[in-house]
Design a protein that fits this description.
heterodimer, A: mainly beta, Immunoglobulin-like, 2 domains, 9-stranded mixed sheet, 11% helix, globular, B: Immunoglobulin-like, Maltoporin, Chain A, 22-stranded antiparallel barrel, 5-stranded mixed sheet
């Protein structure tokens, strides 16, 4: 056999040997039917309709999504106060599909609560221990809207925080309640006065986000004074748009913390066994702000 | 001194000493037009199977030759073959320096000679040498780019049109050892990874080793890209000016005393052009190369080279600003010394610095990352040629590494400092026996101070020459890596390198490569290789942070997740020089799978750069001495992407409900196939009595909408799939003037 023929033979052999494995395995991503739970228990508050837990089923991506279709049906939802053994059933809100509550249950700081969802094909459970309340002292009113002038945003309103546990996880959360269609920049962003898309409003594309959250241990919030408290304030940079905001300053549990801080699949990290979402708890204050156009 | 070293080396040699009556031929090969050293010139002793190649300084030696008459043939791509006759007497050392003459300067005609001589005496798997002339014959986006040229080679995968990153045989860009004049370049990217840092006008040679690299190289798991700057014309002063839509560059070179110099500078002017149109585009990059050589005598040469490059982005708007700058700086001082005709040495003292600063400021608060790498290296690379069939390579490398990574979060700065020493020593025996067998056995010892890691990296390669046209090779090697990269897939600007420590073991890889090379003559050559790579302890960036983890003094285990991977496939590389048509056709078949602890539900996945089939065609047609036409076509089967599997409602503590999609396992679906045709037309003429070449290029000539990434718009109900596409049809033009 000449060198040329031999070479052609070997080359051909190598190629033939490698091709049978070339066929691409079809790796279809199939629809995942999951139960999604979003619940945030607030210390020293009844589990009423305002604090209801959202329980839905996932829906196929390319089908019309409605909450009434997605809302959990045909199952039972119970909540157990682990410390006392008290168990109550949660009923669905007839006006708001997917939301479950029982206003007879009073959530107490330091107590552990177990959520149990039973459907013919699923068992979903989750547990959270409500943190001891974060005491917040501020000139901000928590029973009415605090109107803020844009030119006074940089004049920070101090919030004095106190908590018995310096290791407690704390969240400072500023959330714009406007929609992207109605939102308007306080400082025009690259010449634009309004966000061009929901993604831009949400903070994508290197733009100011509508929702900024700071999370850390209590000891990391600032310099702790001799009385065990510390002073924080919101930064003007947390407010990019005119309109309504909710400022939450609270102690949070591990479930909510993991959900907030995971960048990959946070819905798997919120403490839901057998489902997705987050079952967390927080104890603190919530303030409504309104940044008025001048 | 010389005798002592020679004696020591002789003891190390496995084989018996050469007969005392044997003679040798040695010398330098240079290009006549510039008198620059010619690297990798094939030197064949006619009528025998013997031969050698010139090294990085154009030096060659053929020892152990019996007395007699010899005819030596010197072959190099694009240069007229040279034949020299030498008569050797017993014990005589014949010094034979040769100058090569370019075949066809006007048309930059390149002769595909193959690398037969090199292949007969050396076993280096997956080696592809690309010359600057070849870069310039390929249609490019705006201007010639080294990495984008390499992306057209089989075995080199791409992520997107926007990334010049090199994904070589399943390896990621951080697993490529990129050397510029023998010093590491850590982040060789401009424009967020769109272009590479090397100005092709300043580059003399580029050698890509796609795997199984010899003991001389180490420190990375996948491949080696060895870039050498031009030394400069030793005859007369020359210059090259290049104007493209993106940038302008000027390269000057010339002789001085007993040596040469070269300087090159390039800057983009997108910012300046945009400002003329009243558009604010505050971004630019620049880079510069320089090199000075001094040929002290026939046994000693010294050189000093450097590189400086920077990217700057400064966006200032009411209430916020974004400021980014990143860049590399390197210097390399080299001393080449011939201890004897048989013992060639090359010593390098070099430094490389990379720094990046990112600062995003909203009103009175800022968030930023500052990353810095300082690398001071001392290397020695020696080669002893005992006979023309037996040689020994050996050397050492010591690195002093200093890393800094600072996070600025609001008012606080979290500092991370890492210092370490890396030491390596290698030895490689190159032995040819029976006339048709070449065996290379090597060993590299690596040590890293943080964690006290010692890694033994054996290498072995065997070649069987089946005929004048055909040889087969089998290569195995073990590799280790002490550095890991924090990188966002697809964009490269502030990528951060961090070393391993006691908490995270070094990466390791085994390469097994079998190849066949078929080179029947001047018209066509074929190379095919199959390979398998097994990776251990690869690092995936750990984006998550626990509540108790600080941003300061982070260990490697806090920054990275540990994983394993395997890659296998085949490359086919057919080069042609038929009629007026020169170029190549490449085909790659590749699988790469990773499994990383605590990532993707602990399940294996295909990384985004996993592409099963890639076909590349690059052809250059010389229409006349003045006119050339070329095309580059690339087809790639679909890249994997992560598909959403469902939609669900999310509620925040404020009670707001919105909708999002549920992501499934990583990269289980494939995007549509990628294909793109680029065309180029080059016309040479005289402009103000200067040689000039005008070019018109069309990128993506038929305007195919290649999908870059896919996502779902959840503001729509039902969710709407959105495809974001890569480069559209894009005409560019420019001119190169030489003087």
């Amino acid at each position: 056999m000449t060198g040329k023929r031999y070479g052609a033979f070997v080359l051909l052999g190598m190629l033939i040997a490698s091709f049978p494995a070339c066929v691409e395995q079809p790796l279809d991503a199939e629809y995942e039917d999951e139960i999604a739970v979003f619940g945030f228990l607030r210390g020293e508050t009844a589990l009423d309709s305002a604090a209801a837990i959202l329980i839905t089923r996932t829906q196929p991506l390319k089908e019309l999504y409605t909450l009434s279709e997605a809302a959990l049906s045909g199952g039972t939802v119970t909540m157990t106060e682990v410390n006392t053994g008290l168990m109550v059933s949660l009923a669905g809100d007839s006006a708001r599909p997917g939301l479950f509550y029982n206003e007879s249950l009073y959530i107490r700081s330091g107590y552990t609560y177990r959520l149990q969802i039973t459907t013919p094909d699923r068992q979903v459970s989750a547990e959270t221990t409500v943190p001891e309340s974060l005491r917040v002292t501020s000139a901000l009113k928590d029973d009415s809207i605090n109107v803020v002038s844009p030119d006074r945003l940089s004049q920070r309103v101090p919030l004095y925080l106190e908590h018995g546990d310096s290791e407690q996880l704390i969240v400072v959360d500023m959330n714009c309640r406007e929609t992207w269609e109605t939102a308007e920049y306080i400082n025009p962003f690259f010449g634009r006065t309004r966000p061009g898309s929901d993604a831009e409003f949400g903070g994508g594309e290197d733009t100011p986000p509508k929702h900024i959250t700071a999370v850390g241990r209590f000891r990391e919030m600032g310099d702790i004074d001799p009385d065990g408290g510390c002073t924080i304030s919101w930064y003007s940079s947390m407010i990019a748009f005119y309109g309504s905001y909710t400022l939450t300053v609270a102690a949070i549990d591990d479930n909510y913390h993991r959900y907030l801080t995971r960048t990959s699949h946070p819905e798997m990290e919120g403490g839901i066994q057998g489902g997705i979402g987050v079952f967390g708890s927080l104890s603190g204050r919530r303030y409504d702000l309104f940044v008025a156009r001048q | 001194m010389n005798r002592r070293m020679t004696a020591m080396l002789l003891i190390l040699l496995i084989s018996g000493s050469a007969a005392a009556q044997d003679a040798m031929i040695h010398g330098y090969v240079r290009f006549k037009e510039s008198r620059e050293p010619a690297i990798s010139v094939n030197i064949l002793i006619e009528g025998t199977n013997r031969g050698t190649v010139t090294n990085m300084k154009g030096y060659y030696v053929l020892p152990g030759l019996p007395p007699g008459n010899y005819s030596l043939r010197f072959l190099y791509m694009g240069y007229t073959p040279v034949t020299r006759r030498v008569t050797l007497s017993a014990g005589l050392d014949a010094e034979l320096d040769v100058e090569l003459i370019q075949t066809n300067v006007q048309g930059e005609k390149v002769t595909v000679v193959g690398e037969r001589g090199e292949r007969k005496n050396d076993v280096v798997a997956g080696r592809i040498t690309v010359t600057p002339a070849e870069f310039r014959r390929m249609p490019q986006v705006a201007e010639p780019d080294l990495f984008r040229s390499l992306q057209m080679l089989p075995g080199v995968a791409t992520l997107s049109d926007f990334s010049a990153g090199l994904y070589i045989r399943g390896g990621s860009p951080d697993q490529n050892l990129i050397l510029l004049d023998h010093i590491d370049v850590y982040n060789p990217n401009h424009m967020f990874g769109f272009f590479s840092t090397f100005n092709t006008d300043a580059v003399k040679s580029v050698k890509l080793l796609k795997g199984g690299f010899p003991a001389r190289y180490g420190g990375r798991l996948s491949s080696v890209l060895d870039v050498v700057n031009k030394e400069g014309n030793r005859n007369e002063t020359h210059g090259t000016a290049r104007v493209s839509l993106l940038s302008s560059s000027l390269t000057l070179e010339g002789p001085w005393k007993k040596g040469s110099w070269m300087g090159s500078f390039r800057r983009t002017y997108l910012d300046l052009a945009a400002s003329l149109m009243d558009i604010d585009l505050p971004y630019y990059f620049y880079d510069g190369h320089f090199k000075v050589n001094y040929d002290a005598d026939s046994r000693n040469q010294v050189s000093l080279s450097g590189y400086l490059g920077n990217d700057v982005l400064d966006i200032e708007t009411a209430g916020s600003s974004i400021s980014l700058d990143w860049g590399n700086r390197t210097f390399s001082s080299q001393w080449t010394h011939l201890f004897s005709s048989r013992l060639f040495s090359h010593f390098v003292l070099a430094g490389s610095e990379f720094s990046s600063n990112t600062l995003v400021r909203f009103e009175d608060v800022g968030f930023g990352i500052t990353n810095r790498i300082d690398d001071i290296s001392l290397k020695g690379m020696l080669s002893y040629s005992h006979t023309s069939d037996h040689s020994l390579d050996f050397g050492f490398e010591s690195k002093m590494l200093d890393f800094g990574l600072d996070y600025r979060i609001v008012d606080l700065t979290y500092k991370n400092r890492y210092n370490g020493f890396s030491h390596s020593a290698y030895i490689q025996d190159n032995y040819r026996f029976g006339g048709v067998n070449v065996l290379q056995t090597g060993l590299r010892l690596n040590y890293y101070s943080e964690g006290q890691y010692v890694r033994i990296a054996p290498r072995a390669a065997y070649k069987r020459i089946l005929s004048d046209y055909l040889d087969v090779t089998l290569t195995w090697g073990r590799y280790s890596q002490f550095l890991n990269l924090i990188q966002q897939e697809g964009f490269s600007f502030a990528d951060m390198w961090l070393p391993v420590d006691a908490t995270f073991p070094p990466g390791e890889a085994d390469h097994l490569i079998a190849g066949i090379s078929y080179d029947p003559g001047r018209r066509i050559s074929v190379e095919a290789e199959v390979y398998y790579k097994k990776y251990r302890n690869i690092a995936e960036y750990r984006a998550e942070r626990g509540a108790d983890e600080e941003f300061a003094e982070m260990t490697a285990a806090m920054n990275f997740l540990r994983g394993d991977a395997e890659s296998y496939g085949a490359d086919l590389y057919i080069r042609n020089n038929i009629w007026r048509l020169q170029g190549w056709i490449g085909y790659s078949l590749n699988w790469i799978r990773k499994q990383v602890d605590g990532y993707n539900f602990d399940k294996p996945y295909f990384p985004t750069y996993d592409r099963r089939h890639t076909v590349t065609v690059m052809q250059d047609l010389t229409i006349s001495g003045k006119l050339r036409f070329n095309l580059a076509f690339k087809y790639g089967s679909g890249q994997p992407y992560t598909e959403s599997t469902a939609r669900y409602a999310v509620m925040n503590p404020s009670g707001d409900i919105y909708y999002t999609d549920l992501e499934g396992e990583k990269n289980t679906r494939r995007l549509p196939a990628y294909h793109r045709l680029d065309l180029g037309l080059f016309y040479r003429t005289r402009l103000f009595s200067l040689d000039s070449e005008w070019y018109l290029q069309v990128v993506n000539a038929y305007g195919h909408e290649n999908v870059w990434f896919r996502r779902y718009d959840n503001t729509q109900n039902p969710s709407q799939q959105e495809d974001f596409t890569m480069l559209p049809l894009l005409p560019t033009f420019g001119v190169t003037i030489t003087f």
